[in-house]
Amino acid sequence: MTTSKNYFPKDFLWGGATAANQVEGGSNEGGKGLSLSDVYIFDSSMPKERWTDQWHMMTHKQVEEAQDPNSPHYYPKRKGTGFYYHYKEDIKLFAEMGFKTYRMSIAWTRIFPKGDEAEPNEAGLAFYEAVIDELLKYDIEPIISLSHYEMPLHLATEYGGWVNRKVIDFYLNFVTAMFERLQGKVKYWITFNEINAVKHHPYTSLGIIEEGHPHIEQAKYQGAHHQFVASALATKKAHELMPDCKVGCMISYQLLVPYSAHPDDIQKTVEAQRESLFFTDVQARGYYPAYTERMFENKNVKIKVERGDIEILRQYPVDFVSFSYYMSSAISAHPETLESAVGNLITGGIVNPHLESSDWGWQIDPQGLRTALNQLYDRYQKPILVAENGLGAVDVVEADGSIHDPYRIDYLKRHLQQVNEALHDGVDVFGYTAWGCIDIVSASTSQMSKRYGFIYVDQDDEGNGTQKRSKKDSFDWYKEVIATNGDTLLD
């Protein structure tokens, strides 16, 4: 059943989202250090499957080469799309669209270039304060992701990443510096971007190099435990310094559905969903759920929990839940007999014959967003932010400079209609930030040609171009959606 009434609240936070490592550039500016994301290369001569493979499997050789100032490789995330230089122009365009909010991340290495310094880098703090002030000038509410695949590379190479408990203190030094500098200016904070992604790319999420690791599952979940503790302590610190602020968690959420009605597929789906929601269960509920014991047993994992950790988790759960949503995934207990959905980066899964796919093989399921919102709200009863949603596609610049992207408008419209349905269901959704609101370097493939934005950036996969900004058709479409508070979605 579909409603014809608009249920978006008047104070709904319409906006967009980016990550510092994909948009900023300026890697040699202001004392910034190397981050985990600065290691990813792009080489068009490399087999296309390798573009995504490196996202899942970082090698020791690649990390070593990235630290060589004479490396011949192109590192796209060091260039980004120039937000570091163009942020005033970009924010003005966001304001023209009518953004009520902008979700952005902090490059940890702008604040602590190596991660283990005693004092923060003033140039980095000043940059982010200037960005926040620019947003506030246009009454755009900032939502800050504190860690979005921006961990200092030094903490991975010298400390082994988040598996080392010392990183908790380094993280707390970082977030405290941000809280103290931006208190009174930022209300919404997210401690870790897509924290459940540690299951699939431990290097990017945890700073752990999987290649040759003796017990990667143990390292993943020990690192995750340290992030849980760090998140709880960050929430505690935020509330001490900013009593009115809200701190949230975030996961990558692919709605999981059984491929068939066979009991084995249903059970497999339950188990896969628990593995994903385990991360929000701990952060939002404040404790390890009962199913954890068997899950760890199956993975041969036994995490080390220090005295006081369990109490910290219970005392300082997050205030809201946020998630990225791009696709759903069909789960089978016997996937070897079926066609694999190779584009589904987080859970894999089986091709769902009832769904269409993007150019990158991501299965498009707008109704799944409504189901996901209901599932998360039923489970946690906390306000929810749709922190990422969007369509990666190839955009063509016409001879007159126009960029027609009806496929993106269709994708976003259908998903936002389902957000409206979820609001009608009673879900407390307080905001929606479209992913890659300005073109950025792809997280998974390091391409530029996989574009998400309402704003086009003149730059190709090899980093060539002027970085000139121009509006796509979707720019005016989203502007109208925001101006009518969603009324145009019901047309």
UniProtKB/TrEMBL annotation:
Keyword field contains Hydrolase = yes
Q: What is this protein called?
A: Glycoside hydrolase family 1 protein
Family that this chain belongs to: Belongs to the glycosyl hydrolase 1 family.
Q: Which GO terms describe its molecular function?
A: hydrolase activity
Pfam families reported in the protein's UniProt record? Glyco_hydro_1
Record-linked PROSITE patterns: GLYCOSYL_HYDROL_F1_2 (PS00653)
Keywords tagged on the record: Glycosidase, Hydrolase
Q: Which PANTHER family match?
A: 6-PHOSPHO-BETA-GLUCOSIDASE ASCB-RELATED, GLYCOSYL HYDROLASE
